[in-house]
Specification:
With 212 residues, this protein is mainly β. 2% of the residues lie in helices and 32% in strands. The strands form 3 sheets. It has a 10-stranded mixed β-sheet. Strands 1-4-7 form a 3-stranded mixed β-sheet, with no helix packed on it. A two-stranded antiparallel ribbon has the order 12-13. It starts with a strand and ends in an 11-residue tail after the last strand.
């Protein structure tokens, strides 16, 4: 087996963000990651922030062991194979007393992740809230300190503190997306500027044609 690398800007990238889902359901927000390297990557120690809250990334099964996501999805791992996708979902995704119930179909082999606390991906009151121009930062560190930036969406003004992250206001990203539209990275490289992103209807979590 290949040696597993630690996550870094040299192997892992945010490739899609759904910040304004259909029906305005924040629990259906997601962030898609892609391993563009030729070796497996460990997602251990990764955090996500939008400047309003910071949460650790954990396997889906850690928070929702009874929520069955399909036998061909990887729900209990923090290892992402080369040229594979992972999707970070809100802990509340798939709760049956809400509509729509589980709106996404993920391809076999997709790694399904969530966050360590709360009910939504970031801030529990608003979620990602890309409509409010919140950028997304994937980093290594703690709940209070950013040690290393791995990937970003929205060209944020970088801070050493997760709650200090803000949009730099210098370009058109984060998109002020209409409902049901996601932001998709055009090329799987860690350059975060407006020309590197496009909007896609309904999103394509777990899918992409980046190729090895």
């Amino acid at each position: 087996t290949s040696q597993i690398q630690a996550a870094s800007a040299q192997n892992l990238v945010i490739t899609e963000v759904m910040g304004n889902p259909c029906n305005g359901e924040s629990r259906n927000e997601y962030v898609e990651l892609y391993n563009f390297s030729s070796t497996p990557v460990s997602l251990q120690g990764l955090w996500i922030t939008d400047g309003d809250a910071a949460k650790a990334i954990v396997p889906w099964a850690d928070r929702s062991p009874s929520q069955k996501m399909g036998s061909k999805l990887e729900v209990a791992t923090l290892v992402l194979e080369p040229h594979h996708f992972a999707v970070i979902l809100a802990p509340e995704y798939g709760v049956e007393n809400h509509e729509p119930y589980r709106p996404y179909l993920f391809p076999p082999g997709t790694v399904i992740l969530t966050v360590d606390r709360g009910r939504l991906l970031t801030d529990d009151q608003h979620g990602i809230e890309v409509t409010g121009h919140d950028p997304i930062v994937l980093y290594l560190g703690t709940r209070d300190i950013i040690n290393e930036i791995v990937s970003t969406y929205g060209s944020p003004r970088i801070s050493a503190y997760p709650l200090g992250i803000q949009d730099d206001g210098k370009d058109n990203i984060p998109f002020r997306s209409k409902k049901c539209w996601a932001a998709e990275r055009i090329e799987p490289i860690n350059q975060d500027k407006g020309s590197m992103w496009r909007e896609v209807k309904d999103g394509t979590p777990g899918y992409g044609d980046y190729g090895p």
